[in-house]
Specification:
It contains 13 helices and 9 strands. The protein is an alpha/beta fold and about 325 residues long. The chain folds into 2 domains: about 150 residues, Aspartate/ornithine carbamoyltransferase (Rossmann fold, 3-Layer(aba) Sandwich), CATH 3.40.50; about 160 residues, 3-Layer(aba) Sandwich (Rossmann fold), CATH 3.40.50. A 5-stranded parallel sheet has the order 7-6-5-8-9. It has a 4-stranded parallel sheet with strand order 2-1-3-4, sandwiched between helices. Helix 8 links the parallel strand 6 and strand 7. Helix 6 packs across helix 7. The longest helix is centred in the C-terminal third of the chain and has 19 residues. It is globular. Bound molecules: phosphoric acid mono(formamide)ester and norvaline.
Length: about 325
């Protein structure tokens, strides 16, 4: 992994005060620079002290990894977090988002928001005068994608020309993987059942952003998608907010379980990935979660390192 050169440091300094709502809010150089910094932080080669800066966490959905990794990242950077659970703030009683975002900007230095509609996240970013980070919306999960490509980067020398096959729902995680992968020169193949493919505009956007000839392909055939791939990835069939569709989705996604048969069609060096939480026996077999090819818990750990890099960059702590 590249050292932090002056050029990379200059790229990172441009991220100061920027929002991170979508993987496409960063260009290729910025994405690579963040991964390089995340790796340095993970290795303990770099210490950054943000000096008491405060991250506000607005989470309207459950979270283990994202919430805790943001909290620990901020603590390690010498800062603090405040938990702004919407049920305990006036947001839960209907105070307008525009007032909430402006008030919180007077107390906090950065906000991480997990919510349903992506438009709501964009409203926070519009009204807040501090950086707003996407901690997951229905449309994207860009912090997850940073950690995922950091994980791939640790395994493979160079990401350019590698292929990630995502098997399952064309959801928020798939969208960010396509865009971030394109920015890093990774070919991304998505296999979803008919009617559950990613949105055409996201596929188009990812293709438009791709470097080094990377391609974004969508198919309804999981075997075709995993053929020779370097990384196999899946996520739940019913995301948060889609619980009532669980039974219907279970039928529609039959044949899309990431299992040893599919792994057998991938590259012999292929790794297995999942953003977690996982449903064993649905989108992934229990064996694959614990197999030697699994990097699933590295991915979870890398949330911490990737978000530490992101926080340091947007708070100008470099
Ligand atoms: N992968 C992920 O975002 O996990 P959490 O929902 O636990 O934050
Ligand atoms: N697609 C899943 C990701 C959870 C981290 C969801 O939105 O629930």
């Amino acid at each position: 992994m590249a050292e932090i050169t002056h050029g990379v440091a200059a790229v990172l300094s441009d991220l100061k005060n920027r929002d991170f709502l979508s993987s496409s809010d960063l260009n290729s150089e910025e994405t690579k620079a963040l991964l390089a910094l995340a790796f340095q932080l993970k290795q303990g080669h770099r210490r950054i002290d943000l000096g008491n800066r405060v991250l506000g966490l607005i989470f309207t959905k459950a979270s283990t990894r994202t919430r805790v990794s943001f909290q620990v990242a901020m603590t390690r950077l010498g800062g603090q977090t405040v938990d702004l659970n919407p049920q305990l703030t006036q947001l839960g009683r209907g105070e307008p988002l525009e007032d909430t975002a402006r008030v919180l900007s007077r107390f906090c230095d950065v906000l991480a928001v997990r919510t349903y509609a992506h438009k709501e996240l964009e409203s926070y970013a519009y009204w807040a005068s501090i950086p707003v980070l996407n901690a997951l919306t229905d449309f994207e999960h860009p912090c997850q994608a940073l950690a995922d490509y950091l994980t791939m980067r640790e395994v493979f020398d160079d990401l350019e020309g590698r292929t990630l096959a995502y098997i399952g729902d064309g959801n928020n995680v798939a969208n960010s993987l396509m865009i971030c992968g394109a920015l890093l020169g990774v070919n991304v193949r998505v296999a979803s059942p008919k009617g559950f493919e990613p949105m055409p505009e996201v596929i188009k956007k990812a293709n438009a952003l791709s470097i080094a000839g990377a391609t974004i392909e969508v198919t309804n055939d999981p075997i075709k998608a995993v053929n020779g791939a370097d990384a196999l990835y899946t996520d739940v069939w019913a995301s948060m907010g889609q619980e009532q569709e669980q039974a219907h989705r279970q039928k529609a996604f039959s044949g899309f379980c990431l299992n040893e048969d599919l792994l057998g069609n991938a590259s012999p060096e292929a790794i297995v990935m999942h953003c977690l939480p996982a449903h064993r026996g649905e989108e992934i077999s229990a064996e694959l979660i614990g197999c030697t090819a699994s990097r699933i818990f590295d991915q979870a750990e890398n949330r911490l390192h990737a978000q530490q890099a992101l926080l340091a960059a947007v708070l100008g702590g470099l």
